Amino acid sequence: MMKSIKTLGLVAATALLTACGWHLDNGALVPPELRTLAFESSDPYGEMSMALRRQLQANNVNIVPATQGVPVLRLNKESTSNDVASIFKQGREAEKVLALNVEASVRLANGNTYPISTKVNRTFFDNSRAALAKSAERDVIWNDMRNQAARQLIGKMAGLQHSTQQ
């Protein structure tokens, strides 16, 4: 009896939310002045550039070629570090701290440039006995870190809203 009431409640909530037209608003973070911008990078097909481009598209930002009067998001620098956090008794590396630093800048249509940056850290347990599996796991972690950094940069672009209105 209790299970059927829970199921009925879940179905009713789903029906109400879909019937009223409610949906997630992905583009709420980006100010209207930055909804159309040019994207520049020294490596336009690099992994960080592609992650940032995907996040811009997910937030309903139109990416156009750089012209006069269009704001420009420039990916300036991406740096990574791989530091040892702990070691096994035998002296082998046990745990590492992976760090990703990303620096970008937004040049508004009025010519003002605002730097934005972010840093993402993760820990990684490195077991040398499963080197191939750990290599694949490390690649997945780096991709997640790039996506998180891209989301954080988009969030910091939202902080530029007061600057775009001046």
Automatic annotation (TrEMBL):
<dbReference type="GO" id="GO:0009279">
    <property type="term" value="C:cell outer membrane"/>
</dbReference>
<keyword id="KW-0998">Cell outer membrane</keyword>
<dbReference type="InterPro" id="IPR007485">
    <property type="entry name" value="LPS_assembly_LptE"/>
</dbReference>
<comment type="subunit">
    <text>Component of the lipopolysaccharide transport and assembly complex. Interacts with LptD.</text>
</comment>
<comment type="function">
    <text>Together with LptD, is involved in the assembly of lipopolysaccharide (LPS) at the surface of the outer membrane. Required for the proper assembly of LptD. Binds LPS and may serve as the LPS recognition site at the outer membrane.</text>
</comment>
<keyword id="KW-0449">Lipoprotein</keyword>
<keyword id="KW-0564">Palmitate</keyword>
<dbReference type="GO" id="GO:1990351">
    <property type="term" value="C:transporter complex"/>
</dbReference>
<dbReference type="GO" id="GO:0015920">
    <property type="term" value="P:lipopolysaccharide transport"/>
</dbReference>
<comment type="similarity">
    <text>Belongs to the LptE lipoprotein family.</text>
</comment>
<feature type="signal peptide">
    <location>
        <begin position="1"/>
        <end position="24"/>
    </location>
</feature>
<dbReference type="GO" id="GO:0043165">
    <property type="term" value="P:Gram-negative-bacterium-type cell outer membrane assembly"/>
</dbReference>
<keyword id="KW-0472">Membrane</keyword>
<dbReference type="GO" id="GO:0001530">
    <property type="term" value="F:lipopolysaccharide binding"/>
</dbReference>
<protein>
    <recommendedName>
        <fullName>LPS-assembly lipoprotein LptE</fullName>
    </recommendedName>
</protein>
<dbReference type="Pfam" id="PF04390">
    <property type="entry name" value="LptE"/>
</dbReference>
<keyword id="KW-0732">Signal</keyword>
